[in-house]
Structure formats: structure tokens, C-alpha cells
Specification:
The chain is mainly alpha-helical. The protein has one domain: NusB-like (N-utilizing Substance Protein B Homolog, Chain A), CATH 1.10.940. Helices cover 64% and strands 0% of the residues. It is built from 8 helices and no strands.
């Protein structure tokens, strides 16, 4: 593993990737993996932000996967290498769903994901991850709040 993934939030993202990878490989919920004997490639304790990312991704998995499907032309999610797929999930969660703990700019998340892809992915992973996340970043319609029926009825009443 590259030294670049051994510190701070980069380490947390790397650990979250490993947790999600194990959950998928074992076909277990993230909570079960975290409660059991999970393995981390570093000898460092699990970072709180890593746990937050892993749990958040798992909680929003369908929503994240739908967005990835939208921007991944000609690529089924399950044709992607598992490391790439789970790294993309973490980055999308962090860019669009993490709330107040998220970095201020998509570019930070994308850069971090590209660096982690270089450490864990194939030779093509970093370019692929960069391209997919760039599309997510540029598409404001993904993860746009959808008004529920009550909100829509109030809005229509105000217009009339």
C-alpha cells in the first residue's frame, strides 16, 4: 500500500473501502462486519470517519448505486472491479450525502478517490474513478431533493 493512504481522512477513506469490500465479499451488512473480526491492511485502529463513511454508504447504497448507474455509460456496477465500485460509493456518499462532515469541494473528494484508486485498483482505475466522479460532480440533477406530495400541494396552493 502506498504511504499516501496512511494518514488522516485518506486513511479513513481507505479503511472504509476495506470495510465495504469485506461486507460485499462476505455478503454481510456493514454493521456485522464492524461487529466482527474485520481486517484492515494498516496496523492503525479504525478511524471514526471510516466507520461513518462505511455506515453512511451502506445506508444509502441503493440511492448511490442508482446515481452511479446513471453516469456509468456501458458499465454495469457489478462489472466494475469491487475496489472501484466501493471507492466510487464512498466518494459519492461523501460528495452528496455526508452532510456537515463532507469536504467543502467535490474536487477534494475526487482527488482523494483517484489517489486511493492508484493504491488499490487496476492500472485503469484512477482514470475510470476520475471520469465517473467528474460526471457526478457536474450533474446537479443527481441527488436533487424531490418534493413529496404534501410539499407539492402546498406549493401549488400558493401559486393559485
Amino acid at each position: 500500500m502506498s504511504l499516501k493512504v496512511e494518514r488522516g481522512r485518506t486513511l479513513a477513506r481507505s479503511q472504509a473501502l476495506q470495510i465495504l469490500f469485506q461486507a460485499e465479499a462476505l455478503d454481510k451488512p456493514v454493521d456485522e462486519v464492524l461487529a466482527g473480526d474485520y481486517l484492515l491492511s494498516s496496523n492503525k485502529p479504525l478511524q471514526p470517519y471510516a466507520e461513518e463513511l462505511a455506515r453512511g454508504c451502506y445506508a444509502h447504497l441503493d440511492e448511490i448505486d442508482d446515481a452511479l448507474h446513471e453516469v456509468s455509460d456501458n458499465w454495469s456496477l457489478y462489472r466494475m472491479p469491487s475496489a472501484d465500485r466501493n471507492l466510487l460509493r464512498i466518494a459519492v456518499y461523501e460528495m452528496r450525502l455526508a452532510g456537515e462532515n463532507a469536504p467543502a469541494e467535490d474536487a477534494i473528494v475526487i482527488n482523494e478517490a483517484v489517489e486511493i484508486a492508484k493504491a488499490y485498483g487496476t492500472d485503469e482505475s484512477s482514470r475510470f474513478v476520475n471520469g465517473v466522479l467528474g460526471r457526478i460532480s457536474r450533474d446537479p440533477s443527481l441527488f436533487a431533493p424531490v418534493a413529496d406530495d404534501a410539499d407539492q400541494a402546498v406549493d401549488e396552493g400558493l401559486d393559485g
